[in-house]
Amino acid sequence: MKKPLFFLFILSVVCLPMMGQVYLDASAPIEDRIEDALSRMTLQEKIAVIHAQSKFSSPGVARLGIPGIWCTDGPHGIRPEVLWDEWNQAGWTNDSCIAFPALTCLAATWNTDMSYLYGVSIGEEARYRNKDVLLGPGVNIYRTPLNGRNFEYMGEDPYLASKMVVPYVKGVQEQGVATCVKHYALNNQEVDRHWVNVNLSDRALYEIYLPAFRAAMQEGGSWSIMGAYNLYKGQYACHNSILLQDILRKEWGSDAAVISDWGGTMNTDQAITNGLDLEFGTWTDGLSDGASSAYDIYHLAMPYLKKIQSGEVGTKELDEKVRNVLRLIFRTSMNPNKAFGAMCSEAHSAAARKIAGEGIVLLRNANSTLPIELKASERPTILVVGENAIKMMTVGGGSSSLKAKYEISPLQGIQERAGDMANVQYVRGYVGDVGGEYNGVTTGQSLQDDRTPEQLTAEAVEAAKKADYVIFVGGMNKAHNQDCEDGDRLHYELPYAQDQLISALAAVNNRVIFVSISGNAHGMPWSQDVEAILQAWYSGSETGHAVADVIFGDVNPSGKLPYTIQATLADYPAHQYGEIAYPGVEKQVHYLEDIFVGYRYADLYGTRRPIKYESQGVQYVINPPKRKPTYPFGFGLSYTTFAYSEATLNGNQITVSVTNTGSRAGQEVVQLYVSDSKASVVRPKKELKGFCKVALQSGETKQVSFTITPDMLSFFDADAHQWVAEEGQFMMHIASSSADIYASLPYNYKK
Ligand code: BGC
Fold first, then answer.
1. What does the alpha-carbon distance between residue 274 and residue 235 come to, in Å, rounded to a whole number?
2. Which end of the chain is more exposed for a tag (fewer CB within 10 A), N or C?
């Protein structure tokens, strides 16, 4: 080599890494940029980028002009800014957001377009607020109605959650913001979430608990994923070699960054070797107590550095982690094509209202009580009862708590829509949770009421006697032991003696409409005594508008339940084996209902004998349910009616015609369930494998088609560790809910 060239070569090898901002331009392939940046980073810089520097950010490499990563909860809106090293809000005045409906509501739309709209809208809000990673969506399966975080997830069915999560991920990431799908995996309860080890069969893992995560990573292409707090096979999920290395990396081929849940990293050696990339929220002595600005003593900080410096561990894993973090940075904060975003726009309010309206589920409508058709000449008296008619629900619930720019309460929505056309009155009826504060964000509402329950009931009953309609807005709230993180519900029944109050109202008024603001199923012993029931979720900023839209018929309800509503807690499969199956004994929980979660269990009603089988050395005994569910999975009424006809099977194509036979435009969710008539393993009676939401004008007919593919027929063979579709006969069921089947067609599968 000639002297000047040699000199240049030495200069580039030795000096370039020390100089700033000399890396491949943004048009170069990301993997090249990663290698280039990696080659310029010092050991200390590499260590710095793999752990947090504040509650929600990790540093970049300032010397090289590589920005850090800013995360935000998620998953229903953009969390207010918090102080650098505290959970308390920073007190900014420009960080209010639009609160979107909770993910249970999104799932209840059964409309993938709504999911995409949600993703784009929340992604824009995140982008405008300069966030790179949105901590959500959550797709943990609804195993028990007691789980305090079910409202943040997408229901009991892996197929529904899989289909709904993908457009959300895409919509967010199109804005240059990463989704961080959580909590991977098996975080199905909040009680003991920090130490419970989940024991389950591979079939349950692969068939029930993993599909939505797989869809988010493979089909959605999520750029990050959050490890759960709990353990699986004795290893914490945040550094679990099976979940992260074997499944996420090898089986799913994901190149996403693995982010720990806040405080979910528990062991330095495993954090190094088992696939964690980015450590957040670690407290110094585990989870019980914290020290301030403890970032240097995070597992992936000085402890890791010291191990490298002493030669105890090499840097192979470190480089891999840094690559994954750099990839996340290049896809988000250094993405030259990222959008600018928008916040609190009219479009976002409209999106929130639309999604909320589509998610509301009409469970009962005796005597066509709903919608209430307002006529100025009649001016009915509408009595609104219940704390949830006035209580702000966007504050509370844990990390998904928000500082919403505004929140329309159900009472406001009803009053606004009724205007002068009705005499709208309000009485409290019961006092539940009067709190309204989370991390320094306050609702500003004073809900204190010192009257006794007897006084409140008497007032409500008296008023109900004179009312034309009683709209009872109750349900749960976001207080601890309700729909709230870090604790589960203690009872299946509605809290604050609402059952008694509803029955008392129904005894004096024959037009009681019950509106449940909640994210979980609850008992409804009075379900036949009230005229109408609406499941209205936590719907964020636009709650009141959406509720009024449905009550007064501006929106024809089209939501369907994303979970089964059973009569009592004992009717849920996870609650039939005692504490060993929930919440666990001595830090071990066993999913003894196996794959029979939700409707897969409810479908066994009528089976005479217990189903007994062995799987991977464990004996399973599934006792059939004693009664039908109060409301089945996939169920939801409309103000119009639909007729199904002409179901045909042609090759692999199944087609059905749906006609709107009522007088209003409406939407119907056509559902396809598959049964394996004869299998070499025990299988559920049927499983959801397709759905399609169709909009139909009055009198209109549309055809809906599904293409049958082998993956719709498969089960997970634990011994062979692979999905298997066995040859033979299957039944294809066209249905409007898991309990309303219109046509069942035999299908013969040959490989
Ligand atoms: C929750 C996560 C959340 C994180 C940051 C954790 O306690 O489990 O869902 O994203 O805190 O707030």
1. 10
2. C
Residue 25's pLDDT band (boundaries 50, 70, 90)? confident
Is the minimum distance from the CB of 182 to ligand 1 under 6 angstroms? yes
Backbone phi, then psi, for 339, in 5-degree steps?
-75, 175
Question: pLDDT averaged over the chain?
Answer: 95
Q: Please tell me the distance between residue 136's alpha carbon and the centre of ligand 1 in angstroms.
A: 9
Amino acid of residue 582: Y
Q: Which fold has domain 360-551?
A: Rossmann fold (3.40.50)
Cβ 339 vs Cβ 176: under 8 Å: yes
Name the architecture of domain 642-749. Answer: Sandwich (2.60)
pLDDT tens for 500-537 read: 999 999 999 999 999 999 999 999 999 999 999 999 99
Q: Which two tokens stand for residue 370?
A: 């709903």
Tell me how far apart the alpha carbons of residues 713 and 747 are, in angstroms, rounded to a whole number: 10
What residues pair up with 697 in beta bridges, in sequence order? Answer: none
Q: What is the whole-number distance in angstroms between the Cα of residue 399 and the centre of ligand 1?
A: 5
Q: Which two structure tokens, joined as six digits, stand for 639?
A: 């103000």
Ligand 1 midpoint to CA 649 (Å):
46
Calculate ∠ Cα 427-431-434, nearest 5°. Answer: 115
d(CA 370, CA 52): 52
Architecture of domain 24-331: Alpha-Beta Barrel (3.20)
pLDDT in tens, 333-386: 999 899 999 999 999 999 999 999 999 999 999 999 999 999 989 999 999 999
The protein residue whose alpha carbon is closest to atom 12 in ligand 1 is 399
Domain positions in the chain: 24-331, 360-551, 569-622, 642-749
719 given a catalytic annotation: no
Closest CA to 539 of 497, 486, 478: 478
73 Cβ closer than 6 Å to some ligand 1 atom: yes
Supply the residue whose CA is at minimum distance from atom 9 of ligand 1.
Answer: 399
